[in-house]
Design a protein that fits this description.
globular; D-Maltodextrin-Binding Protein, domain 2; 2 domains; alpha/beta; homodimer; 6-stranded mixed β-sheet; 42% helix; 359 residues
């Protein structure tokens, strides 16, 4: 995957660079260029999500007629994968491309903006963010860290995870050591499992060595790329731990406030169009990835229903622990006000039509 | 609803208007303004879809720093609701905001870009358009009419329709006269129904007078606004005739080709971000609309399964009639190549997770 405008980090992003030499010919009025440095939590050439970071950079550049340049840096290139939050908060970098469940150590409410067990679908989350209270609450949370937040993608339907042996009931879950971080891991713990957090790049080796018995990661497209099928032949679906994952952009709030309305529109609509594109991209590639995994002798299994039932019993107790501040309580309540209204009218959601297609 | 930049149609859109007086202060380099006239198939103050046309205009204006002005006209104001295609094709107007199932008389393949019985969901359609062959085929179809096409919204989950009396089986369907145009109406005809096409604004009166026994229109948000509950108390869901409807923008192709790459990016990303916004908007308002309809004594009924089974048996014969040109055949085949791959892996779509939520 080609990197977009990789430049020396020495050229500080916040200083406009004078000179029109690099500006395309059709924009003769442009006389200044702003550079923004985007740090990501993704390894170089990361499929799906990494592609999304590059597409987002390109959208901002195109919409600004190249008056804004966005330099994209992979995990570890400037800061460690989970160091991007602090880097942007402090102004060392301008933007991060990541997922909000990594920031539970900053405020436990952050994971509500990435994925919640038995939580919202991609479209429900987008509705809450764009039309409901979501964006305002997210920005209120971010303002305490000098951050402005945007949703810039979603994984769509995810897999429950990869297992070395079959799991048939709650008792089988109780015996495993599984890579499953955050809210989802906490929920598995209520069933007796031993959840651990391992960075994405180390999961395959941990499975291979027997350090863990199972692992969750993401959707068929990204899980294929990680190669988990090489060491764990049982793949269970769908996930209830993090059923879809929203991907986010964080921007330094001082930087955001320095922009005029036109530039703010560029950022906002670039993010919203890329949010649409990433979900479409994953959905388009999903079936081919599943076909490929089947050809590699993966045993796909529907998750046993008693595991789902037991998890549903335990989920609200687990989630209450993620609302431990006044803003966290507001976020949890707003999230569930919208989600519960949706689940109360479950006869009308898209699953009913999709169930028709299965007849 | 406030109209955006309503101006005299005498000021022809295609002539740049010189003068920076109306341009906001932060864009001192801007010296020309282009006006684009957008004609729509929607009545004035139309909820949902009409709101989307205005939002799209605003996005294009914001992203261009007001160098493009978009004048939005409701149905009949400049041209009749279904005259917008010809108006933009000929260059009388620059843009139309409508739905492609209205253009079956131009080429029978056009409805594939709005809604297909047992067809794609909003997200599947977006995947086919943005990542698959959809956009290229749509533009190939449009080039014969001097048009460039964009997807700019979707209704999300729709209702099967409004009935004065209960329907319990195929036999009940066979006796009704129902407002249901195009592919969906043709499919009901295979079960003995008498489908008719009536413009949206005349449906309520036709139901009231007894000229028709039933009618389909759209989703809970728009159907509430149309007031069908006043004369038909049975509402069946979900729809299989037009399960979700994509909303489209058509642009005069000569006009599109006259734009530089920066302007093309503005149009494209404005359309894609508005496509996301409309679906979120409908989803956000869906539950409140259903609650309101229930409070108005609407009897919601799940569509009897034998009607669905019979319709599925008949659907491919009906759809084959919509591919009667070489481009039509290509479009049908590409649409079903993608859709059939999705339905072959139906265990992995979002309905499986949503079914978990129902346990």
């Amino acid at each position: 995957m080609k990197k977009i405008n990789r430049r020396s980090f020495i050229k500080k992003a916040s200083i406009p660079i004078i000179g029109a030499a690099s500006i395309s010919s059709f924009k003769v009025h442009a006389s200044t260029t702003t550079e923004l440095n985007m740090v990501t939590s993704w390894p170089e050439n990361f499929p799906g999500i990494g592609l999304g970071a590059n597409r987002l950079a390109k959208r901002i550049e195109s919409l600004s007629n190249n008056k804004i340049k966005v330099n994209v840096y992979s995990a570890g290139e400037l800061v460690p994968p989970f160091g991007v939050f602090d880097a942007v908060s402090s102004g060392t970098a301008d933007l991060y491309h990541s997922a909000e469940f990594y920031w539970g150590g900053k405020n436990k409410a952050y994971p509500f903006f990435a994925a919640v067990p038995f939580g919202m679908t991609a479209e429900e989350f987008n509705s809450w963010i764009y039309l409901g209270e979501g964006q305002a609450l997210w920005d209120e949370l971010g303002s305490g860290f000098n951050l402005k937040h945007f949703v810039v993608g979603n994984t769509g339907s995810t897999l429950f995870g990869w297992f070395k042996d079959e799991i048939n009931n709650v008792d089988d879950i109780s015996k495993i050591k599984i890579r499953s971080p955050g809210m989802g891991g906490d929920l598995l713990k209520t069933m007796g499992a031993t959840p651990v957090n391992i960075p994405g790049g180390e999961i395959l080796q941990s499975l291979s060595s027997g350090a863990i018995d199972a692992a969750d990661w993401s959707n068929p497209v990204m899980d294929l790329a990680f190669g988990f099928y090489k060491v764990a032949k049982y793949c269970y679906y769908p996930d209830f731990k993090k059923p879809t994952v929203s991907i986010s952009l964080g921007m330094n709030l001082d930087k955001w406030n320095s922009f005029d309305n036109g530039t703010k529109s560029i950022i906002e609509y670039a993010c919203q169009s890329e949010n649409q594109e990433m979900l479409s991209d994953f959905m388009f590639k999903e079936v081919a990835s599943i076909e490929k995994l089947k050809s590699l002798n993966v045993n796909f299994r529907s998750l046993p229903q008693d595991i789902v039932i037991e998890a549903k019993k335990n989920v609200s107790g687990v989630l209450d622990n993620y609302a431990d501040t006044s803003i966290g309580i507001k976020i949890r309540d707003s999230y569930f006000n919208f989600l519960n209204s949706r689940t109360s009218y479950k006869d009308f959601d898209i699953s009913n039509y999709l169930n028709f297609r299965k007849i």
